[in-house]
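note to self: dont lose this again. the chain is below, predicted strucutre after it. 218 aa total, dont forget to put it in the shared folder this time
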Amino acid sequence: MTLPALTYSGLGIDVANGTNRLAILLQNIVAVAKFRKSGFLDFKKALVISSMVLGGALLGSIIAVSMPKEILKKTAGFLLLVILFFMIRKRKRLVERGEKKSLFIRIPAFLATGVYGGFIQAGVGFFLIYDLVALEGMDVVQANAYKVFTILVYTAAILPVFILSGKFDLIGGLILSAGNMIGAYLGTRAAVSKGAGWVRWVVIIALASSATLFILGV
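---
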């Protein structure tokens, strides 16, 4: 939801797409530290997985900063619809844990996920979880740990691409980062007191609205 929030706060979709990465970087630093402390991360293995994603992420970021703003906005709208599909299907099991596949299968899959993450980021966690569970043979808890590490690594690598291309707003990024921290605190309290079901429907409605506006060019 942060990409539409930045866009409709006054930033162009191209600048919002880059600015969004600062908050993502900061929140994943915290998440990685927590998973590492809990013993879920093997850094050597995490670096190998991240390296398979990194090249695709760099390519995706270059495509993003080179794409005309209006085309990027419509593309983002269609991709938000994809994420909306996963949100609606959330209560159903989307992926079964599989056996670890060969590199000939894993490398193209991780590269493709990297291209998506570097290009738009929104919802990349769904695709990384799929790769890690179905192709790496991890359970969901392990997959979440390696997911946040991978996102941290490639976000740190591609953030300079957006900055050097002028697709980044520092003030907006800092405000978003602060908002994420406050929202996480308030959202956790709301989920505990009221349950998370209502939050899910707020997100679904917001995603559907944003996707429609992006596609229509509003």
